[in-house]
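User: Please run a holo structure prediction.
Assistant: Happy to. Please share the sequence and the ligand.
User: Here you go; the ligand is magnesium ion.
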Amino acid sequence: MKSLTILGATGSIGQNTIDLVAREPDRWRIEALTGGRNIKQLAADARRLGARLAVTCEPGLYGRLRDELAGSGIEAAAGPQALAEAAARPADLAVSAIVGAAGLVPGLTVLQRGGTLALANKETLVCAGPLVMATARATGARILPVDSEHCAIFQVLSGEDIATVERVIITASGGAFRDWSLEQLATATVAQASTHPNWAMGQRITIDSASMFNKALEVIEAHQFFAIDPHRIEVLIHPQSLVHALVGFHDGALMAHVGPPDMRHAIGYALNWPERRPLPVERLDLSRIGELSFFAPDPARYPALGLAWQVMAAGGLAGAIFNAAKEAALDAFIAGRIGFTAMSVVVEQVMDRMTPESGPVGAAMTLDAVLAADRLARIRAGEIISTMD
Ligand code: NAD
Ligand code: MG
């Protein structure tokens, strides 16, 4: 039996994790579940799975969580400090399924205690990749990527020498607006951006998929996690979302990972690693699918994507700035304050204003410096947004 903590248990990745874990109750003992405002879901899952601890990140919701758990013997806690304490508790595996930069401290806490972190929260690596990887090296902690593309690359690379890799190709569905004209894009609504053609995910990553900010984050994530040079990373639009990533080796071989668009594959792979166990996902019938297509993304349509290479070239705190500006722009879009295409304008302007002051490539990266850059980028983004609405 393995002990497991799920950070962000009430979200899309968290619920998919619970789906898998609940099928094998004899294999998993749940140490802690954490969530946000959805107290009913958090408490119900904590009871169903027999968790020892349940934490909401919302300090004001402590009373409600405690009441929902009354008589269960499950400990209740609330607030960011309690979240970090949940992450610090020993568990064989912790899944980080929190959305946004809020996942950084809990994820880093798991690594600081030398734990194994199944990482869906790509922002952890985007904001603080060098710090995160150095922490894992120093404590002997392990990171297992759960983002589907990175899990795919991880699988393709197993048993391979990273020095033989010529290129990594990350695929993108193209999101909700793949076939829209540029004029139409400017008028896209939140509801339209919140539906994905192939994947069922949380609202924020779904909108990020439509704008390709998600792919920009994933390019940086791959650069940080696999230590691959930026010029070796490519993105291809692949509308079927069945080939999740490809790795090109120096003998000309191109190895692809093919699977259904179901996050339970990547989550299950990480849960079971280093074993490969049966998973309840669809088996693809390629003769019925018939065709897999690929094409290069149009930079004019997806300005967010190009910013990833700007971030990687700048290094240092550029990732934290980029992500925080993106989160602020996304909040403003969801709130109806700015249009869909204005998001990348906001982020680009924040980066232009802040990159020079954020320190050179390789500057010592501390958690405090990352969090300060994150805060300042949100302030700068707010200033720019207020001139737009
Ligand atoms: P979601 O919005 O569905 O769930 C987010 C979870 O984080 C919820 O449990 C929520 O309560 C919690 N949370 C939100 N704000 C928080 C805060 N400030 N502090 C602590 N907890 C907070 O998100 P999701 O779609 O499950 O995505 C989670 C992460 O996984 C993201 O980083 C996303 O990019 C990544 N990811 C998701 C998918 C997917 O299929 N959904 C695929 C690949 C990667
Ligand atoms: Mg992904």
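The chain has 17 helices and eleven strands.
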